[in-house]
Amino acid sequence: MAAQNDVSRKILQTGARVALLGLVINIAFATIKIVAGVVGHAYVLIADGIESALDIAGSIVIWGGLTVAARPPDQTHPYGHGKAEPIAAIVVALGVLVAAIGLAIESVREILTPHHGPAPFTLAILVVVIVVKEILFRYVNRIGNEFESTAVQTDAWHHRSDALTSTAAFIGISVALIGGERWRSADDWAALFACAVIGANGIRLLVPAFHEIMDTAPRGKIIKAICGVASSVPGVVELEKCRARKMGLDFYVDLHARVDGKISVAEGHEIAHRVKAAIQQSNPRVADVLVHIEPAQR
Fold it and tell me: Would you tell me the crossing angle of helices 121-147 and 43-69 to the nearest 10 degrees?
């Protein structure tokens, strides 16, 4: 059990370091984009910079959530602090949705208000942002998928969202520059499109975190694999129930195993221990297994 908690703790600490890396990059990009947007008269770049600034807050929340989730179980939290991870993801996702609505309102206002066309140098900034953010997305998403961390995956999609909004900004500014005065508002329309992308990503991030908070049964082959391992333990006649829930990066399993009704209580207890040990050996992320022994039906 202690070794399994150590593994999960190391994974969560890795996720926290990844979030910290994203935080540093977002601070740099948010500053550059907002300043360049103001100087270069490109509202879409300002909107993109504000989105990056919100990513800063998101990275802080993700980092904090993962740091708390990495704490070991204590007297008041015997199952650990894993729920801090999806809670952080929900907070960030809701922040993304609020930001999308606010930026959309401001984009419409800019479309209706005459203003200067964007400066060409803003395109170079966006190219750098798109490349760096896409690389960062692939790196962080790989870690999030490998560890099945909702919070890390949320942070990864923040980077992809930033890459997409920057791409929309690049297209909008390019159209505004090529089209001249008639297409001067193209960057504002691009900002509006970016808001739609941001909002869609917010919903995409919110759903899995909400499922985890609600103890939705984990997806994938984990239940089938657990049942297969438990059924193979000598003395287990059949399984009646097998349930699992995700707590941070760990899984907690409850199952009902049927055994020969003629064996002693001590023998049934020993079978239960063998079932638990076999499941935990097969998957190091299974933190605990509660085995209920029942007599097999004749």
Answer: 20
Question: What is the spatial distance between Cα 141 and Cα 135, in angstroms, rounded to a whole number?
Answer: 10
For tokens 């657990």, the residue is: 226
Q: What Å distances lie between residue 143 and 151, 156, 218, CA to CA?
A: 11, 9, 19
Q: 273 is written with which tokens?
A: 């221990």
pTM: 0.62
Q: Which residues contact 39 (CB under 8 A, 6 or more apart)?
A: 119
Q: What angle do CA 181, 43, 163 make, to 5 degrees?
A: 115
Mean pLDDT, the chain, rounded, equals: 80
Token readout for 122 is 């803003």
Domains and CATH numbers, the chain: 2-213 (1.20.1510.10), 222-295 (3.30.70.1350)
Tell me the per-residue pLDDT of 57-111, one tens digit each, with 9 for 90 and over: 777 777 777 778 777 778 888 877 878 878 888 888 888 788 788 778 877 877 7
Rounded (10°) angle between helices 150-179 and 186-213:
170
Query: Rounded to a whole number, what is the distance in angstroms from the first to the last CA of the chain?
Result: 36
Burial label for 218, CB within 10 Å (0-12, 13-18, 19+), is middle
Identify the three-state secondary structure at position 243: strand
Sheet with strand 250-259: strands edge to edge: 236-247, 250-259, 286-295
CA distances from 179 to 31, 42, 52, 175, 184 (A): 28, 15, 28, 6, 7
255-291 pLDDT, tens per residue?
999 999 889 999 999 999 999 999 988 888 888 899 9
Instruction: For tokens 């490998």, name the residue.
Output: 146
Q: Could you give the percent of the chain with pLDDT greater than 90? A: 11
| C-beta separation of 23 from 61 below 8 A | no
